[in-house]
Amino acid sequence: MPPSFLNSREDAMLLWTVAFLVWVVPKDPRGIGGSFLNVVRAFFVPPILLVLGSALLYSAAVAYVAHDAGLWHATALKATVYWFLGTGTVLIADAASTTARNSREWLREVLRRVIAVTVVTEFVVNACASAAASGSSARRLMAARRCIRTTRASRASGTA
Predict the structure, then answer these.
(1) Could you tell me which of 59, 103, 65, 99 has the C-alpha nearest to residue 82?
(2) Would you give the DSSP letter of residue 158?
(3) Average pLDDT of span 65-76
(4) Which of 67, 140, 143, 148 has its CA 20 to 30 A from that of 133?
């Protein structure tokens, strides 16, 4: 049973990822296992941990200040984590690997990558958006509120 905080799209992504790994790993267990271990080792290099840790602390501080100002709420935690792991990590990696290039070229490339990651993230995260996408403004607002109430009720009862 998938975790209860995932929506149906996230459940499907998790299922297909596990199915893909179950299919791929037996094909070449030493190759993919060794490659994965190298990626994990590279991630735990102190300079990378320092940069990612600093960015994580900064993002947490921004969320905390926004929460105190009433601009951020705990129900946005999952989307905030997705943003950090997706768009935020892309920006951090690009900033760390940027050489002296033309600033316009760099900006265009960063925007292209951020938009690509954002589109995928929004597709996975926004299960309620499709319900509220059609009709007049009032009808969209009502559909979004109904979706939020349903999501909150199912989370409270532990069924989502």
Answers:
(1) 59
(2) T
(3) 86
(4) 67
The helix-helix angle for 8-24 and 103-125 (nearest 10°) equals: 100
The single-letter DSSP state of residue 45 is S
Which pLDDT belongs to residue 57?
A: 92
Structure tokens at 106: 């760099």
Q: Which residues contact 13 (CB under 8 A, 6 or more apart)?
A: 124
Tokens of 11: 């459940």
Q: What is the DSSP string of 80-91?
A: HHHHIIIIIHHH
* d(C-alpha 149, C-alpha 28), whole Å: 46
Neighbours of 149 (CB within 10 A): 10
What's the N-to-C CA distance of the chain in angstroms?
11
Cα–Cα distance measured from residue 125 to residue 6, given in angstroms and rounded to the nearest whole number? 9
Amino acid at 135: G
Residue found under tokens 């905030």 = 80
